[in-house]
Structure formats: C-alpha cells, structure tokens
Amino acid sequence: MNQDYIKPNNWSIIEEGFDKNSVKSSESLFSIGNGAMGQRANFEEKYSGKTFQGSYIAGIYYPDKTKVGWWKNGYPEYFAKVLNAPNWIGIDIEINGEALDLNTCKALLNFRRELNMKEGWYSRSFEATLQNDTEISVNIRRFLSLDIDELGVIKYEIKPLNKDSKIIFKPYIDAGVTNEDANWEEKFWEPISVKNYGNTGFVTAQTFKTHFVATTFMQNKIFINENNQNAIPDNNHSDSEKIQFDYIVNANKGDVVSIEKMGGYTVSLNHIDTESAAINVIDNALAFGYNQLLEKQIQAWAKIWEMSDITIDGDIKAQQGIRFNIFQLNQTYLGKDSRLNIGPKGFTGEKYGGSTYWDTEAYCIPFYMATKDQNVARNLLTYRYNQLDKAIENAAKLGFNNGAALYPMVTMNGEECHNEWEITFEEIHRNGAIAFAIFNYYRFTGDYSYIPEKGLEVLIGIARFWHQRATFSANKNQYVILGVTGPNEYENNINNNFYTNYIAKWCLDYTYEQIQKVALEYPSDHKRVSEKVAISDAELQSWKKVADNMYFPFSKELDIFLQQDGFLDKELVRVSELDKSQRPINQKWSWDRILRSPYIKQADVLQCFYFFEDHFSKEELQRNFEFYESFTVHESSLSPCVHSIQAAVLDKMEMAYTFYLRTSRLDLDDYNKEVEEGCHITSMAGTWMSIVEGFGGMRVKNDCLHFAPKIPKEWDGYSFKINFRNQILKVTIQQSETTFSLEGNQNISVFVNGKEVIVEPNNLITI
To answer: Please, which of 241, 259, 517, 547 could form a disulfide with 175 given CB 3.0 to 4.6 Å?
Structure first.
C-alpha cells in the first residue's frame, strides 16, 4: 500500500482513487467524533472487502476478563475494552435488483473522500457500474453534531446515469456488533427492545457486566431532486437486535434520489429513560432539518478554530499535519464532562483499551489549557481527584498502605485494567505525571485554589507511594527504586530509571512544599485534609530524607545521566548504523532481542529534561540529547515531539523540523505501519507542543509568558493563539520578525529572548 496517498491540502484530508488495500487505513484517518461519540469512516452501504467496523460512545466500556498464561498477585481482573457500539450508519442499497458493493462493482471511477476539518464533515463520492450494467453517481456527506452531541446526520444521494432505476434504500440500526479486539470472543451487548414508529426506529441494548444502557436510533426521509417524498417504509424487518426499513424509489435517469438519515445514541450515563431521550433528540433535530444542522456544525467548528488554529505559511504538508492533529483532539474531547477523558485512540479504533493513560497529564493538558479555558484542564485534574480512592485501592493490591496511591496505567473508572505485568506493576512513573499536571496547571493558570480544594490529597497519596516504593541501599548509602519500566518500554524490570527516580524525588519535595503553603495560606483546608489523611510532621521528615538522598545513575566518563543502572553494558550500536530493513524493530525483532539492545522507544532521560528543563543547564541538555537521540528509534508516538522541542532549544532546526513533520504526520503518512488500527490521538497534543513550545519557545516563568521564537527555513511564517489567564495572545512569527496582538482589556507583559515587552489590547507589537 502506498502510505503517502493523502493529498496535501490546507484544510482537508483527501483521498482520490479507490484502493482496497487502503480501506482500513482510511477508515481510521477519516474518522469523525464530537466528544460524546465517534466512528471510523466505514461505508454506509454493504462492503464485502476487508474493513474494520467501529462506532464508539464516550464513557461506555466492558470489563473483558484478563487473559494471561499464569496469574500473578495484583493482576488486574479485567482489561477495559472500548466498546464497539451498535451501528446506526448502515444504509444498504439495492439498484435494479443488485446490491451496491464497492468490492464487486464492474467499474469504479472518480472515487473521492474528504474530511473537511474546517467545517467538521466527512464526504465520499464516486461513479460506479454495477454487474447489471447500471451506471450511477453517488454523493454522501456525514457529520456528528457538536451542538446536539447525541446526533449524527447522513445525506446519501444517488443519480442513475444510463437508465431509469428502481432504487431501494435499506437504512438499519444493528446492536449485533462485536469488538475487533476481544479476549474471549464474547458479545458485549444484550438487546433489550426493538421498536419503530413510522420512519423512526430504536434498538435499546445494555452492556453485559457494566449494565450501561444505550438506545440507538434512526429517523429517515426520502427525497427526489430535493423534494421531500413524505415516504413511509414499504417494509420493515426486525429481529431481537436489528431493525431495517425498505424505501422503494423509482428514479428516472438523471434524477437525484436521496435519503437523509439521522441517528445516534442516548445513554444511561446521561438519561434515566434513554428511549424518551432519543425521541427528544429526533424532535429537536427535525425542528432544525439537515441544512440548518449543517450550518450550525460549520459555525461550531469555526468557533473552535478561532482559538485553536495554528497557521503555517509556505509548507502545505506541515499545515495539513497540525490541523489534522488539532481537529482529532477536538473530536475526541471538548472538556464538557469531567467523567470523560482522552483515550489514546480516541474514537478511531479499539487498541490499548481504557480511556485514560499518563498521556493526558504529560501531553494533552497543555494543549487544552492554552486553546480552551482553565475549566477544561481543571476537569481533567478533577477526573483524577474523583478516582483517588481507586488509586489507593490499586496500591493496596500491590502491598502499599497508609493511603499510598498508585494511579492506573490504563483505566476507565479508576481501577487498573492493563494486564501486562511489566507495565501494570512497573511503569509507575505515571504517578509522577499526574502530580506534574497539578503543578503545571497552577503554573499556567495561576489558579491555586485547585490544590487546597482537591489537589493536595492527590499529591499526598502519590508522595506516600513514592516514599514506600523507594528502598534504602546500604551499598550506595542512598535510596534506590528497583524493578521498574520507564517511558522507554524497550527496557523492563530495570533498576534506578533516571526519569522515575527524578520525578519521585520531585513529587516528594513538591508535595512537602504544598503542605507548608496550604498550612500558611488556607488553614481551614489544611486542617480538613490533615485530619482526613492523618499526616504527621514525622512522616513529612521521612519523605524529605528519601528525597534528599535519592540515587541517580550517572556516567562521569560521558558526563551524562544514565537511563538506568547498567545502560552502558549494552552493545552501543547507534541507530544510524542499524540496517533500515530491521525497522520498526518492534515488528521485526523478538522481545528478548529488543530488551538486550540499546534501542530506545522514547528517551526517558530526555522526558525528564522536558518536564524539568529549568533544573538543568543547556550544556547538560546538549550532552544528554546528543547521546540518547542516537539510540532512539521513536517507535512510541509520544517520542518525536519531545525531541523536536529540545532540538529547537539547541538550535538544531533541521532536526527539529524533521521531528515536527514526523509527529504531525505520524498517522497521515503511517510512519509506524499501523494506522489501520486507529490514530494516535494523545500524541497529537505533542504536535501542538512542537510548534508552540518548540519553535515558538513558549514557557511560563514567574507568572509571565516567555518566548524564544525560531522558524524552520521551510516556512514563511506561522501563528498561534494562547489563552493565558483569560487573555488571548496571538503570536505571529516570520523569518524577519515576531508580532504580538492581544484580545483582552489589560496589558500583558511577555518576555522575548529574555527582554520584557508590554503588549496592549488591540495594538500590534512587532519585534
């Protein structure tokens, strides 16, 4: 398959020409979502070729029983599956007695798909000759409404080109779906009822075990040449999990016949009576009608882009890449509901399960803080606060006590549900990212209130975990952390991972400081929290002792921090000397070979330098970057963005640009040869960081925004907006100058390459 088949375009993802080998990849790339639900870009009509059917509802999951060779104490009992939801998009088509199926057509011309990111819709068009020699032209447009987020809309148009035709539209909804990804081949949905009234159908089903109830609905209208036929179904067929209507339309050659299908889900997360809620959604949608719903969709996306767009002049593939990333992030999560989070595949696939990883805190929160408002980021922090009890339970299952909290690597409801031991038990660095997000939120927003209200309890639980997880080594006369996996998952069960040890020390120090600050400035909150978690001065002193005496592996000879104990014992063959035919190593090598190699999925030491940049000198960054970059294969989607940011800091602009393209077009160009499984949603926030923090050099220091603007030679200019403490600053960087403009009512002080600049509202400042 040609991985570079997406046409370069500033605002759209476009595929031209039909290739059966790219169908599953395109189903991922052209996915649509609205924060509450989403779906892969499956064909509405029957398709007998290879396809990966997928529709998903935010917050709905199934606890698929863990399947492992042998059980270990502390194993999660289940792996949370992102559930393939009932299919509402289906519209089988019969023309002159033959089913329309792009896999069996005699000829297929002018096939085109477009995902219009500016306006938030997906379209498909083609001309087909069926086996019975009927020639047709087809146009389809589909969108998931941002305004009515339980609603999706399809307009499916057919024009007979060479003869009068009998066309039968067969819209259906079907709860008889299975997951592509299931441990035991179980079914996850149990149908409860199937009903229809006129042009409206409902299938209500509930998930086994978790008992989420969802009503999947549809409402249909038939048109000839845009004239509503007020048709009622000629037939309807139903069984215990599916309902289908037949609409027979006799079309003259050249007529445009169409069906408008509205569908979607109402779920028990939000409604007591899901069926009556579905009726309300349909009534609401019908009051607007297709054209007005589309217009409202275009306006809603315009509002999102007004704040979150990044423009790039002179480099169309770079521009398309960043907009695709921003678009998918907004399709996945809009910050309206603190029960939801940002899954690594969003609504584009099922791999990884769960809806929440450390990716949210480490990579996504900066994007949402800067492009929305602080309430969205606060909702993401609140999500973890609400799951603190479960984090304490998770730690207790592994033998920790006294309220120590270990947040899960993968979760839906706060319980750990990842069943690979080297990740579940060992990739404990995730705890640090959750604490760092609390610090990062305060640093960016200036809103300290979250810490006394909620954050302090989370920090204390995490600090208690680190205190208990560290071991005193008499040999080193320091505290060590044994048996871990860092962000670099190509190393398991290692000792003294630099990043893990560093963030553990930082968490202990930071929590200690926040307890002192809350005691001083929020005495009633301090009293409430202290009584609730029973914290003593003796405990705090024991934390301090661990933090002050933490061990960090270091090579005096190379003057760099070591990723972990023993890293230099490896055969240090650099990536540049690795045969390209061996890449990606995760698809070509045995796990044993990977673990013994020096190759790094993502660089732990550099992740630490990214979080704690101001703790290290630029010279230290340079030495560590140059060493670890040479061994990094970037087979984690989270890797290239950090390297892009640091390459920009080090004035390695060619490298920074290459990494930016890699992160922004990871899925569009299918670097890792796996896009058919779904897109890498959480790493897309890293693409935004590559521009804003990398090329723009944006940092927050002492309550002020700092910039160190740089620009790749391939670009004429770029611009972005930052919502900093409810003032919206627009930054435009060109080869010769940087300009700032401000929406707000008071001046803002920013620093450019260390020099202070006062930006006044509605007044362009050029530097």
So the answer is: 241
